[in-house]
Design brief:
422 residues; alpha/beta; formyl-coa transferase, domain 3; 2 domains; 6-stranded parallel sheet; 18 helices; 15% strand
Length: 422
């Protein structure tokens, strides 16, 4: 049913990353990386400070009440992980961490450059503990360079990566929603980490640990698409054009229940333009036939203010009379590049996503509620993805994991009393 989340089939087949152990001590910039490994069956241990990951304090919160156990972003990005609350700033905590690393394949961290070294937990030290460890460090500007120690959050990375220059409206730069710089870094970190693990398992990378240095800024620069090539080839500096109708037949248009995006202009050598004009003619748009005159076949003319004004005076009223789904379906039938601008509600009710069971339900242990969340955007036939458990409470698995490392009850109690663990 539309708008309903379902659980995917959970046949008793091995997960793709079953047997892989990951230590995730990252925050916003790396937690999605850890989630992707957890989703594929890896044992992901979330190492948190005693007062919890900073993401736990980011809203919105379930029920509207701020609490480290009610953060919706934390619940989504940390589902399927096990939580250990550990003070890494004291010697005993550092020793516990080293024991944990010895059994790990991958460590994901997002501390400031130099902080891990000040704790005696830098790459070279950890590699001595775990000779085949892959350590992925995600920082705003990488481990080296003049910006390496600068403070930075998501919007700063978007700005210094160039994406804010291209996004927005005229003289008003606008950041895309949802910490996209951090998510880009997490995606690149996932790919690089997986390649390093595959190389290590195949022996092609040789024996020895590997350190992956991820720069959030550089990941954002990778998202500039053709902006650099435009300058390189044409000496043309691309600017933000959102909300602007750059040429006749291209842009966002309001309709009866929202907006649609049309791309009929700019490619006048194809039949998209003529199909669009005849669509308006069939819809009773007066004077639409003039758009078939020879001058409308010129790309340069389509970019003129006169052409844009003429086209908009005809198409805007036409679009405003129809719902976006009707415009989309009719436009598709006429082989016109057109699509609805979808709201979150539209996405949740998408027939396509419902057919593929994209949205799934996830239990939230702290509140005993069910959340509807995105599932996996891929399908693996032999080792299928399946929804994991909900996000852990702070320190929920500390005793369990330390016991697995060989710490007896007396030692664990002493560490708890000394506030090394929680």
């Amino acid at each position: 049913m539309q708008g309903k989340a379902t659980q995917p089939e959970t046949a008793a087949r091995p997960a793709a990353l079953s047997g892989v152990r990951v230590i995730d001590m990252s925050g916003w910039s790396g937690q999605y990386c850890g989630k992707q490994f957890a989703d594929l069956g890896a044992d992901v241990i979330l190492v948190e400070p005693l007062d919890g990951s900073s993401v736990r304090r980011d809203g919105p919160f379930i029920g509207g009440s701020a609490s480290i156990e009610r953060s919706i972003p934390f619940a989504y990005y940390n589902a399927g992980k096990r939580s250990v609350a550990l003070d890494l700033n004291v010697t005993d905590g550092q020793q516990v961490f080293k024991h944990l690393v010895r059994g790990a394949d991958l460590l994901i961290e997002s501390e400031k450059p130099g902080l891990m070294a000040s704790r005696g937990l830098d790459f070279s030290t950890l590699a001595a503990e775990a000779p085949n460890l892959v350590m992925t460090s995600i920082t705003p500007f990488g481990q080296t360079g003049p910006y390496a120690h600068y403070e930075c959050d998501d919007i700063v990375a978007l700005a210094l990566g160039g994406l804010l220059y291209l996004g927005g409206y005229g003289d008003q730069p606008t950041a895309v929603h949802g910490n996209q710089a951090y998510l880009a870094a997490a995606q690149f970190a996932s790919v690089a980490s997986m390649m390093a693990l595959l190389g290590a398992s195949s022996g092609s990378a040789g024996n020895g640990a590997q350190h992956i240095d991820i720069s959030v800024q550089e990941c954002v620069v990778m998202g500039l698409e053709t902006a650099i090539q435009f300058y390189d080839l044409e000496r043309n500096v691309r600017t933000r054009g959102s909300g602007q109708l750059s040429m006749a037949g291209v842009g966002v248009y309001r309709c009866r229940d929202g907006e649609i995006y049309l791309m009929a202009g700019g490619i006048a050598s194809t039949r998209f333009w003529e199909n669009t004009v005849r669509w308006m003619m069939d819809g009773g748009v007066a004077d639409a036939a003039q758009l078939l005159e020879e001058k409308w076949q010129s790309h340069d003319y389509l970019a003129t203010p006169e052409a844009r004004e003429t086209f908009n005076s005809l198409f805007k009223p036409f679009a405003a009379r129809h719902d976006k789904l009707a415009l989309y379906e009719e436009g598709q039938a006429r082989r016109i590049p057109i699509c609805p601008v979808r709201t979150p509600k539209d996405i949740l009710e998408s027939r396509q996503l419902a057919f593929r069971n994209f949205f799934v339900t996830q239990h939230h242990p702290a509140t005993n509620r069910l959340m509807i969340v995105p599932g996996a955007p891929y399908r693996l036939s032999a080792t299928p993805w399946k929804a994991g458990s909900g996000a852990p409470r702070l320190g929920e698995h500390t005793n369990e994991i330390l016991e697995g490392l060989g710490y007896d009850a007396v030692t664990r109690a002493a560490l708890l009393k000394a506030k090394v663990i929680n």
